[in-house]
Fold each of these.
Amino acid sequence: MDLAQHFVTAVSAVDSNVKGPELLPVALSRACVAVLPVEGASLSMTDELRVPLGASDEAAARAERLQVTLGEGPCLAVTAAAEPQTFDLAAILSRWPMFATEVLAQTPFRSVSSIPLSVPDLPRFGALDLFCTDPAGLAVELVHEVATGIGEVISAALFAAPTANYQHGVTLPTWLNVASVTQRMNVWVAVGMLMENSGLDNSDALALLRAYAFGRQATLDDIARQVTNRELALETVLS
């Protein structure tokens, strides 16, 4: 049985314990942990601001949130490069010192590999992130095997998933109807509010929101929620 077949078998086993089509990315992430020498996995859509789809556990979800809050990290770099890569602990410490400090303090992970996901009409639509407690990380050969085997299976599964009608008659895959997606999209609402009240452009408003979150040891998602719910005054963030 090759890696892709092993993964499909694992997805079927995990899926029986993960109820609801909206949790497909969670099942896919947990299947990665079941068949690969990793301790965590997460799936996200990639754009200027990554949108989390699902993770194997809370530690993997936290590692994703740290990168988005700080605006730096291995998975963001791989998205830009469009090539699967693995980063050992030394590389993480050297290239992303803020991320390294936080991920070492808040998670058990010591190395990260990331695989861009694509389908013919949507190159680089997402990423699979694999987290290891081993500082050496995954072998380069295995990362490329995952990209051509498991990565293709994940992409096909996501785009073959059921769709549903949401607000304003928009049809979307059911796996987008989860709290983590709503929370991340809420960041753009908060960015828009800052722009309207400050004259900042999109990039500067996002950077300000990130800096505010980091300075208070909060996540970008949490600060955005406070801003949009009027729990946190815009003037406080802008001061």
Amino acid sequence: MTPIRLLTIVTAAFALTLPASAIERRFAFTYETTTQAKGAIELENWVTWRHRDVEGGKDSDVFRFRHEIEYGLTDRLQLGLYLFDWQYDDQDSEGHEARWQASGIELIYSLTNPTTDFLGSAIYGEVLVGEDSLKLEGKLLLQKNFGPLRVAYNAIIEGEWEGGKFGDFEERTGEIAQTLGVSYDFNKRFSVGAELLHEIELPEWEEAEDSVVYAGPNASVRFGRAFATVTALFQVTDNQGEPDSQVRLLTGFDF
């Protein structure tokens, strides 16, 4: 827990000393229903550390990175360009190496406002293309703001196809998931809360595997045109084939 405490202290220090930002990204695993204003551009970077204890052997640590540009096509429609997703795996069969995984796009269309409407809502679509893989993902985003308190929920369905080369897919995997995030604004710059992640994998879109549930705290700071958000999730189920913990840090800059 030491790294999480350190990150919380750092974000709190930023919040107390730097000016506020209008950027709203208070969760690392849960999407909010609000989108960029028309013509607004944001650069966003992700780092996700997935750790798993391996009995009788070396622990597994996987680091995943994403670099994304978000652009407001309209006040309701946001385009995201995944420049490249890449990964470093210390258990890689070919040795310790970083490798490109995929690039793609996402679209988010905001339907209702979480503050002025009874319930905020949006729909999300994503396409990721790799050298030998294709991934499609859809989400229903829901959110409600109660003054300084924000509650957000995502329902997710995902399909992935892999093979020896692109288009010659031999494996297909489905997944259904849901996330829940709660965040409280102490002021315009600093927020703390918690997130929950529930995933069920569907190999070959047939029988479902055991579900896995994660839960943990998060913190977010907004300063100037930038923001930083961190969430630490810990597995609360006993699924030994999945990571024991996941820590994700998001940073962004609004142009």
